[in-house]
Fold this sequence. Notes:
33% helix; 169 residues; 20% strand; alpha/beta
Amino acid sequence: MLLLDRTGTKTDVWTRSEGAAIDNLSHALVDWEALPDALRQKARDQRIGVSVPNHIGIAELKLVLRQLSLVSIAFPAFSDGRGFSLAKLIRNHGFTGTLRASGPLIADQFAYALSCGFDEIELPETSAARQPVEQWLTAAGRISHGYQRGYGDSRNILDQRRAARAAAG
């Protein structure tokens, strides 16, 4: 697996755990089903992350968000965009930890993933081999402005126009 953020490749500090066996892992990544047990076993200085399917309800997830340092959302296919909506909901519920998209996304989706709140993308080797890192970084910079509000950046066209009208006065 290749891990990318907006600056390029990065080292993954998270260790995937079988079930809830997180004994001596400083950064343990568990599946959604194992999360309750992992949280009960969590040591004071341990960080817990969870891998969730993209169809999980935010009502369930928001109950544990404060206890997590990483949420990894599975993308079963690049054409399945439910993970983008879930990422936005997670950020809207105040999650400040790392948000990871995991699956066979394509470079053209990178800028959108970042604007939805993802910090990083974990790609399977087949996807990483098809589109080199440079292509991902170029794609991330291609979208300079958008119409969606609330993505935490100042690239919203509507907000820029409103500010220009207010300044002109």
